Amino acid sequence: MLAEALPAVDALVPEAMAADTSGPFGANPDSAGESAILVTVRVRPFSPKEMTLMAPPTPGRHTIGSNVGLGTMGSKALRKVVHVIDDRILVFDPPEEASSSRFAPTAPPAQTNKRHKDVRFAFDRVFNDDATQQEVYLGTTQPLIDAVLNGFNSTVFAYGATGCGKTHTISGTPTDPGIIFLTMKELFAKIHQSEHERVVEASLSYLEVYNETIRDLLAPPGATATSLALREDARRGVVVAGLSEHVPATVDDVMELVLQGNKNRTQSPTEANATSSRSHAVLQIHIRQKNRAGGLATDVLTATLSLIDLAGSERASVSRNRGDRLLEGANINRSLLALANCINALCDERKKRHIPYRDSKLTRLLKFSLGGNCRTVMIVCCSPASTYFEETYNTLKYANRAKNIKTKVERNSESVKAHVSQYVKQIKEQAEEIKRLRAENTALRAQPGGRGRSAAVAVEPARPTATLQLAEDIRNALSAAFDTVRSSEWEHASTAVVADACAQHLEILAAARAALAGDNTDGTVVTDLRRALEAATEQIAGHRGQVGRHLDHTTLLLTRYRRDTKRADYPAHPTAGRALTSDQKYRLDLERRALELTCANTRLGRAFELSQTLLAGLGRQLGTALAGGTRLLDGLSELIDAGEADAVNTLRTLYHAALPDFQTIATGLATIVTDATAAGPAKWQVAPPSPSRAVSRLLAVVPSVVPSSSSSGRTSPRRGPAPRPRAGTTSRESLGLTARKPSVRPGRSASSSAGFPVPVPPSGSVVKRPRGVLSAQPSLENLKPAKRPNVTGPSSLPPLPPPPPMEVVKSSPSTRRRPWGVTPLADGSPGASDRSTTPPDGDSGAEQSPRHEPPPLDALPARSILKGQRPVPSYTRPTAASKSHSQPPTASATANRIRSGGPVRSATARRRSRNMFDPMGSKPIAADAPTRNRMSARQFLEAAKQQGAADPGPARPAQSALGFRSVQNGPSN
Ligand SMILES: Nc1ncnc2c1ncn2[C@@H]1O[C@H](COP(=O)(O)OP(=O)(O)OP(=O)(O)O)[C@@H](O)[C@H]1O
User: Where is the Kinesin motor domain (predicted)?
Assistant: First the structure.
């Protein structure tokens, strides 16, 4: 029934609001276009003081006065003049009956004839006195946040009479925060949410308009409080010049700034409000944002959210303010009147052409909020008490009028074309962003059990844990250790191989020496020599094969271990702090064994290489030795038909001619063995021969081959007594092999135990060593070789048993050839062509070398002495130059030819030459041996067998002297 009596609510609602059913700003609050100011009303509850003035609910008693203001307070009881019907409609000053029956059930029934205004107002939203701060926020400001973030300016201002709850609504209390806190909280939350998409910059300013002056509430401490000027900017709107701007990072920063500004705000107690704000406060948040993925032109959105707490209007007559308060009230009222005029003008089509914004600072500040590009929310605060009757009524009337104000909102979007330099900046920013995100990602991963929001990011390889690190350390330590010993291992291995091989070489040499030093011309000498050489060759070849097999075996093992090591991967994530797992131990063990094998493999490889080198060297040396032996045999074969004396002399000549070859070999080998044994004992799995072993083996044969300097020179090499060293010769001790009983002082000449000089370098000189021999210097005390100055040439060879004087055997030239061109002189001396004082090959080196004096005749074999003949001097090794430029002056022409490989050879000799043993296929034994085949020891033996079978040579001593038959059947004798 009452509802029917009430005027139609819809008639009171503006058209714009009638169409708006979905929200305070219509269906799409973020769309551009015309927008009406959102007008909301909040009715505060009665204050405790007002509650005491309320008329007791005594029935039948008139307790509510007429329309009285504050001036009438105390004299008459209060009544409620604002009745909220729903969230959009309120009734101002309803009749008592209606009030009592419908709006105020506790109020007494009206018993007066007083006329009530009974005006209904419809607003966008009406909040009753029990509305919470959150409800007010959600119904007024919250929709603006998205608008601001979409580039729309927005303003929220609280309007109303003093003491009606404007500050309470905008700022609130610490326990019940108002719109500022709630707005900032959500605004910053949304900014953080969009951080990965947009760069949002937020700044804040806070000012007050007090007595028509603008003051910065956040001015830095110490700054002079000056009135700030207002500027109008076509693009930015109204700007307060000199206003400080602050950049809060969080909502806490905002609240700190707001509290600081509130402290600075002018506030004074008045009769109406103990905490009356005497100024208009304007808090502005400036938002500037752009997309992170910007192109050539970047859209920059800017917007300003203004939260304004106006000062309350007051009637001077009622507020009883004096002095400053009165002045403040006058200014407040003036600015609010200017605001009311602007609102009236904005709503009046006729006056719309001129809006009096300039009438006050407040209206100038709110110019764009009321009539410009801005979404505006007006929160009208009013008191329900009758003491605020006039103020509330006027406020509601203005608010109702403000509903007609329409603003034209536009998105503040600005397209900023990026300069090239902008790209650099962007790249830098994005690089920093990536860095920051990576750090954040790493931090999130480091959290135990937490993947955080980076779970979607590609999983990086796991960082090594402590256990894995331990395993790595162990492996590295193993590697380092093996690397350290590897070089010394090589050294030892080399030494061992060289020492072993050199001992064998010396044995060969000793055997050769023994064979050649004898006067056995029946062929067994050369047979023995050949046997010794072949045996040594076979031995070394066998040794080489053994090393090669070791090498193959270890290579195979190494490959296998490496493959297994690859298979046994570390567990992906071993648990930190635990001991190594069995898998890890297995892998480490594999690695260790692989490393050991690597070392062993290296050692064996080195040994193999060395043995190969030595074998090659040995082959060359054997070839050289056999060349001499073959020449000797060739000579022997030629001597078959010669007379005994001639043959013996020729043989001796040949012996002396071949000897330098062996001496040279011996010199090199002695150096090798000295150096090798001095390098120290080798720790090698192939047990190296100890120096003492090598020496003892050598000594076992050396005494028998030391050439005797006494008597006949026919001393049996194996059975003869040990020779006594003499001046110019070298004993065993001088070789350094029995250094415990040195017989040669340092500095004196020395020769090897085999009767050969040991080339010890003089101080500062360099001794050329055979290939494959280590350069280690002798260091063992008992193996020091004796020093011998200037022993580099054949001229330093010790004197050897000279050949006996040639026996002149008269024979017919037709039957008795003189194949070697020995021409006896008439006086018993060699002929004029026989330059007995020079080597038969004309070696010029004789001039540089001391020539050995011939031994006394009685020292020569008796049967070889020929009267009037001078002994043939010992020869030095012929040089290539001497071979090519000079002819042997004397001695046997055959011997010279044989020695020089000349063309005059017997068929047998040529055949022997073709079968020359050259096991390693090394360089030609001599330049004059073009037809010599390269044969292995086995091939050599085979060839010998075949030749022996094919050409047994019934009575040719030369064949037996070659030793072929002896290889197969033993020495012929
Ligand atoms: N909704 C409300 N709920 C509870 N208390 C309120 C409410 N609104 C206002 N008050 C109280 O009323 C008193 C005055 O409020 P407030 O200071 O906010 O008024 P005002 O409009 O800001 O006055 P002025 O214009 O003089 O500054 C304060 O003590 C405040 O706590």
Answer: 36-405
Q: Give the span between the Cα atoms of 377 and 2, in whole angstroms.
A: 32
Pairing of β 198-210 and β 213-216? antiparallel
Using the mean position of ligand 1's atoms as its centre, give its distance from the Cα of residue 164 in Å. 5
pLDDT band at 336 (very low <50, low <70, confident <90, very high): confident
Does ligand 1 come within 6 angstroms of the Cβ of 395?
A: no
Answer for the pair 845, 880: CB distance below 8 angstroms, yes or no.
no
- Domain with 362 in it: 2-415
Contact 891, 878 (CB under 8 A): no
* Same-domain status, 310 and 402: yes
Looking at 906, 924, 957, the residue that finishes a domain is 906
Tell me if 237 is assigned to a ligand binding site.
no
The answer on pLDDT for 42 being more than 60 is yes
Looking at the 3D structure of the chain, how many domains does it have? 2
Give the CATH number of the domain where residue 58 resides.
3.40.850.10
635 Cβ closer than 6 Å to some ligand 1 atom? no
Ligand 1 near 178 CB (within 6 A): no
Which of 43, 44, 176 for a ligand 1 pocket mutation test, highest count of atoms within 8 Å of Cβ?
44
3-state secondary structure of 628: helix
- Is residue 439 a part of any domain in this protein? no
- Report whether pLDDT(248) > 80: yes
Q: Are residues 405 and 503 in the same domain?
A: no
Cα-atom radius of gyration of the chain, to the nearest Å?
63
Ligand 1 closest atom vs CA 173: 31
Residues 514, 391, single domain; the answer is no
Provide the mean pLDDT of the chain: 60
277 ligand 1 Cβ < 6 A: yes
Co-location of 521 and 411 in the same domain: no
User: Measured from the CA of 133, which atom of ligand 1 is nearest?
Assistant: 1
User: Is the CB–ligand 1 distance for residue 273 below 6 Å?
Assistant: yes
Cα–Cα distance measured from residue 207 to residue 229, given in angstroms and rounded to the nearest whole number = 12
384 lines ligand 1 (CB under 6 A): no
pLDDT tens for 738-765 read 333 333 333 333 333 333 233 333 333 3
Whether 128 lines ligand 1, by a CB cut-off of 6 Å, is no
Domain for residue 317, yes or no?
yes
* Whether residue 498 sits in one domain with residue 638: yes
Same domain, yes or no: 411 and 498: no
CB 758 within 8 A of CB 783: no
Residue of the CA atom closest to atom 1 of ligand 1: 44
Find out whether 333 and 359 touch, Cβ atoms under 8 Å. Answer: no
Longest alpha-carbon distance in the chain: 191
Q: Determine which residue's CA is closest to atom 12 belonging to ligand 1.
A: 165
Give the ipTM of the model, two decimals please: 0.98
Each residue of 366-424: pLDDT tens digit? 887 777 778 889 999 999 988 888 889 988 988 888 887 777 777 776 666 555 556 66
Q: What pLDDT, in 10s, does the model give residues 439-493?
A: 888 877 777 655 544 444 444 444 555 556 665 666 666 566 555 555 555 555 5
Tell me which of 372, 389, 415 is where a domain ends: 415
